Amino acid sequence: MAKHTSPLKADTVSSLTAPPVRLGLQTKLNLLAIGLIVVVAALNIVTSLILLVMEKHRDIAILKTMGANARSVTAIFMMQGLIIGVVGTGVGGAGGYALATIVDRYQLIRVPVDVYQVSHLPLTVLPLDFSLVVVVAVLVCFLATIYPSRQAARLDPVQALRYE
Question: Which residues contact 6 (CB under 8 A, 6 or more apart)?
Fold first, then answer.
């Protein structure tokens, strides 16, 4: 009686169906890349809010002369920066999730089968990782609003209106 042998060994099949194993270096590089993107976005928010404070110094001075305290001026600019951060993070997160889903579903990134044992690059968005990136991005955007908000709150109305 001849014994039937399969061209695939049992360990090969299990390695193809097993969940992907995270590589330490790949995870660290992804974290570094996402971190740099978030830092650049936070610096963009800081710059735009500083320019807004410089542009609106007359309006801030009028608000302060009408009775607005430093805390309310700070809250206005922090809320504006937080809205920018939430909208940007939401659009970026939704776009990234959609792109990853499309690339995975339609197998758009092909790789050599003889080298990687798979025909395409499988992409999986993990909910915990996705949530962590979104929360950290919004937190960094919120922290980026502190300096421009304090600058707006420290504006002296007399000096701002003197040369207008």
Answer: none
In our burial notation (b when 16+ CB lie closer than 10 A, e otherwise), range 79-94 reads ebbbebbeebbeebbe
Q: Which residues contact 112 (CB under 8 A, 6 or more apart)?
A: none
- Report pLDDT digits (tens) over 62-74: 999 999 999 999 9
120 vs 113: CA distance, rounded Å:
8
pLDDT digits (tens, 9 = 90+) for 121-145: 899 999 998 999 899 989 998 999 9
> 146-153 and 127-144 are packed helices; what angle lies between their axes, rounded to 10 degrees?
20
